[in-house]
TrEMBL record:
Presence of the UniProt keyword DNA-binding in the record: yes
Protein name: Type II methyltransferase
InterPro entries: DNA_methylase_N4/N6, MeTrfase_CN4_CS, RM_Methyltransferase, SAM-dependent_MTases_sf
This protein's UniProt keywords: DNA-binding, Methyltransferase, Restriction system, S-adenosyl-L-methionine, Transferase
Catalytic activity, reaction form: a 2'-deoxycytidine in DNA + S-adenosyl-L-methionine = an N(4)-methyl-2'-deoxycytidine in DNA + S-adenosyl-L-homocysteine + H(+)
Taxonomy of the source species: Archaea, Methanobacteriati, Methanobacteriota, Stenosarchaea group, Halobacteria
Molecular function as annotated in GO: DNA binding; N-methyltransferase activity; site-specific DNA-methyltransferase (cytosine-N4-specific) activity
GO BP: DNA restriction-modification system; methylation
EC number: 2.1.1.113
Sequence similarity: Belongs to the N(4)/N(6)-methyltransferase family. N(4) subfamily.
DNA methylase N-4/N-6 domain segment(s): 23-270
Length: 364
């Protein structure tokens, strides 16, 4: 099995290189409005944002920042298939402007944006992202009432384009082979993820600005979401590609991917991350299988039998739908286009393209 992974260097507010209704799943983490590290980016898109921040008008700045994200959500609506899923990882912001401290509810504004575009909200996920400090408050210490709760969670907002679910041909191998284990379903489809930790990206950049803006989410988040909401053969979009974590997850999960990124410096560094993908994908697959076998041992020890056997692995499974599960690993990655000009786009943005060859997970 082969998958194709494309990255376009350009502005996600206009994804001209991506066809209408060509993407089954979007998984992304946009820049969070009202987080200071993103002020310069948003101001570059709309100078009025910088003026609002300078004058202490947080409400105006907040709405103007989201107005820029709205243009990306317009494009996302266009490229998603009917019934396609969008997973948006976003955190709220706390900030003081003009000596007034408050929270800016990014998740609520993104929810409003997708509903206004006809998306149906699905149950969302909270994942805990611990703060470095042991202190669990901000403000005036031990004396009430002017201390504030520390935000230690982010949201994964989940939306479906339209009210109808995607349909598949009966018994489609690409769907049943992409099944997850019963115990994975119970863990992944919980609305609170406490075992996923934030990670500091140790990346080497000559450009200090790139280093400051390399705030990627943990690989576990896009990997889970891709497994939960797509099948083999599907294409996953990340319009805020960053360091390519969603593409790495798609490679490990055996899906195609497409991304858009403003900073070519991030894409140029992706070759270094690609070298680790074969080993990473094998490790991810083996870990899933090992955890399942540990679950089997515990369940049998509790006196609970299994009715079914997996078709491709020497292990029992709980449900009939799990029997066809077939994990894959990346055997090799070829660079098809490395920063070539994209002739089909009016902006002539650079395109990077990779081909990953997948084989059944090796157990030796």
């Amino acid at each position: 099995m082969e998958t194709i992974h494309r990255v376009f260097v350009g502005d996600s507010r206009e994804l001209a290189a991506i066809d209408d209704s060509s993407v089954e799943l979007a998984v992304t983490s946009p820049p969070y409005p009202m987080i200071e590290m993103w002020d310069d980016l948003f101001t570059g898109l709309d100078p009025a944002i910088g003026d609002a921040l300078a004058s202490g008008d947080g409400r105006t700045a907040f709405e103007a920042m989201h107005a820029q994200l709205d243009l990306v959500w317009d494009e996302l609506e266009r490229v998603l298939v009917d019934g396609g899923i969008a997973c948006i990882n976003v955190g709220d912001a706390t900030r003081s402007l003009d000596d007034s401290f408050r929270v800016y509810a990014n998740h609520a504004r993104v929810l409003e944006a997708f509903e206004s575009r006809g998306f149906d909200p699905l149950p969302d996920i909270l994942w805990r992202k611990p703060a470095n400090s042991a202190a669990k408050f901000m403000g005036s210490g031990m004396i009430p009432p002017n201390a504030y709760v520390t935000l230690e969670h982010e949201y994964v907002l989940v939306f479906r384009k339209g009210s109808e679910r995607r349909s598949f041909e009966p018994g489609a191998d690409r769907r049943y082979e992409a099944a997850y284990f019963w115990e994975e379903r119970n863990r992944w489809f919980s609305d609170v993820w406490t075992e996923v930790q934030g990670e500091l990206q140790q990346l080497q950049f000559e450009d200090d600005d790139l280093r400051d803006r390399s705030a990627a989410y943990p690989l576990e988040i896009p990997y889970r979401l891709i497994c939960m909401y797509s099948a083999y053969g599907d294409t996953v979009l990340d319009p805020f590609w960053g360091t390519g974590t969603t593409t790495l997850a798609a490679m490990c999960a055996g899906r195609n991917s497409v991304g858009s990124e403003l900073e070519e410096g991030f894409v140029e560094l992706f070759d270094d991350r690609m070298a680790d993908v074969p080993g990473l994908s094998q490790s991810v697959g083996r870990t899933r299988l090992e955890r399942h076998r540990e679950f089997v041992t515990r369940r049998l020890g509790e006196g609970n039998p299994f009715e079914y056997e997996a078709d491709h692995y020497d292990t029992p499974v709980v449900t009939k739908m799990e029997r066809g599960i077939r994990l894959r690993e990346v055997a090799s990655i070829d660079v098809l286009d490395g920063g070539v000009e994209n002739e089909n786009d009016d902006e002539n943005e650079d395109k990077y393209e990779y081909r990953a060859t997948h084989v059944p997970l090796s157990l030796e």
